[in-house]
């Protein structure tokens, strides 16, 4: 569907009758925000507030390989050299989210006039009871909030990290799926199988010391792979007159895993599918408060902007990112064939 770039006018955003509905439900895009919703949303009580655009998520260290001590009596007379781990830092960055609301006074003045082909006595047909939008500014604000939530939902999974080194370079948050490197399985065009899923569960359990399975792990999958998972793990129901399966929980050797349909688990129009196992208990949105010229600060700002003519203008502004702790708590399978098994 078309998008208005810039100011909303009487002519570029006509009114129609009927139920207001989005036609954006296509593969890879969806209409909801399952991942963001499970994380608690943008007003989550689990959120984290940071003082800068760059922030740390976790510090990691390794133990030496376990070994049997070989210390005799003579050796024990003298204390050995000390040993200690070297820490590594997992970092991320915030994104700036900025959207504007801009509607002309003419558009606001004609809320009841519908752009239809029905004409009575050379006058456009009026039918306010069929207009799904009665307040253009409120509707645009609600639309922008949903747009920001969708952008955050996608970015928190698939965002590519970029540190801002000057005012002309954007700060970008790294998504949890992008971050997965230790527990990353390449299917190379193969169909989803129990063997691939069990390999993913094993890798995540081993590399996280099973901590991931104590943090509400959820398998986020596109539509076709959701059907495949139900076929792989499904059982015949007790009632033989009822057919079909909808697997929402998988019992693994390491703990339970939820299964959620999430269209934004991968980029739109991808030729292969990606599924991601994410430990939701360690994921939380991160904010840097937006401070205005009068000193007030908010995690999510809306303000009216100065008028330059016969139109209303305002803006939303937020500095947001995601903290997913350590990438070893999560995993993914990429390159899956888009076929039903």
> What would the CATH topology be?
phage-related protein like fold
What is the strand tally? Answer: 17
Mean pLDDT, to the nearest integer, reads 83
Looking at the overall shape, the CATH architecture is Alpha-Beta Complex
Characterize this entry briefly.
The protein has 341 residues and is α+β, with helices and mostly antiparallel strands. The chain is built from 7 helices and 17 strands.
Question: What's the helix and strand layout?
Answer:
Blueprint: H1 34-39, E1 48-49, E2 54-60, H2 73-77, E3 88-93, E4 95-104, H3 105-109, E5 119-120, E6 123-124, H4 136-158, H5 176-179, E7 184-186, H6 194-207, E8 217-221, H7 223-233, E9 249-251, E10 256-261, E11 273-279, E12 284-287, E13 290-291, E14 297-298, E15 301-304, E16 311-323, E17 331-336
Parallel strand pairs: 1-12, 7-17, 8-10
Antiparallel strand pairs: 2-3, 4-16, 5-6, 8-11, 9-10, 11-17, 12-16, 13-14, 15-16
């Amino acid at each position: 569907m078309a998008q208005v770039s810039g100011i909303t006018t009487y002519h570029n955003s006509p009114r129609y009758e009927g139920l207001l509905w989005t036609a954006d439900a296509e593969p890879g895009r969806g209409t909801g925000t399952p991942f963001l919703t499970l994380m608690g949303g943008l007003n989550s009580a689990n959120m984290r507030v940071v003082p800068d655009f760059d922030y740390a998520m976790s510090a990691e260290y390794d133990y030496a390989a376990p070994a049997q001590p070989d210390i005799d009596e003579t050796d024990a007379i003298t204390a050995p050299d000390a040993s200690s781990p070297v820490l590594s830092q997992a970092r991320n960055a915030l994104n700036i989210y900025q959207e504007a609301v801009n509607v002309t006074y003419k558009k606001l003045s004609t809320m009841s006039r519908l752009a239809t082909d029905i004409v009575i006595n050379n006058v456009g047909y009026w039918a306010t009871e069929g207009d799904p939008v009665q307040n253009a500014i409120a509707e645009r604000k609600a639309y922008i909030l949903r747009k920001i939530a969708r952008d955050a939902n996608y970015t928190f999974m698939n965002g590519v990290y970029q540190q801002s080194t000057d005012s002309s370079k954007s700060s970008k948050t790294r998504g949890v799926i992008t971050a997965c490197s230790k527990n990353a399985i390449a299917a190379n065009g193969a169909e989803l199988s129990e063997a691939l899923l069990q390999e993913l569960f094993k890798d995540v359990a081993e590399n996280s010391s099973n901590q991931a399975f104590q943090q509400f792990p959820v398998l986020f999958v596109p539509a076709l792979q959701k059907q495949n998972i139900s076929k792989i793990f499904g059982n015949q129901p007790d009632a033989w007159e009822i057919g079909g399966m909808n697997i929402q929980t998988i019992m693994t050797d390491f703990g339970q895993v939820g299964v959620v349909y999430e269209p934004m688990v991968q980029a739109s129009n991808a030729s292969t599918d990606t599924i991601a196992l994410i430990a939701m208990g360690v994921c939380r949105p991160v904010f840097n408060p937006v401070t205005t010229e009068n000193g007030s600060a908010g995690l999510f700002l809306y303000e009216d902007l100065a008028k330059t003519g016969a139109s209303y203008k305002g803006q939303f502004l937020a500095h947001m990112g995601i903290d997913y702790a350590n990438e070893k708590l999560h995993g993914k399978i990429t390159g899956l064939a888009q076929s039903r098994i």
